[in-house]
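Any chance you could type out a protein's amino acid sequence plus the matching backbone structure tokens because I've never seen that pairing?

——
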Amino acid sequence: MVVVIFRSRLREEFAGQYQAKAMEMLELARAMPGFISIKTFAADDGERVSLVEFDTIEHLEAWRDHPEHREAQRLGRERFYSEYRLVVCEPIRDYGYKRGEGVEPKE
């Protein structure tokens, strides 16, 4: 699995245009091979954090390089974001707990 941490701040004046483009990109991402999930959170200070999961780096790179996503990236830099930072990670350890199922570390 590959996890992308995308931290950003939006420019207020383009919020409406951003929402439309974000929904379009969400649908496109969900249709990409290897896509697992995305969750987005907003902090009180306006920072947004999205956690995106793909099954392999190759599938993530295919998403990164998709022509419609490339255009959205350009619009993000030119219009939508006042700042952003993107970090790509591969988990060192992955385990969890779900009531009734116990803890199962994966190493």
Notes: The chain has a mean pLDDT of 94. The CA atoms of residues 38 and 52 lie 4 Å apart. Strands lie at 2-10, 35-42, 48-54, 81-89, 97-98, 102-103. The first strand starts at residue 2 and ends at 10.
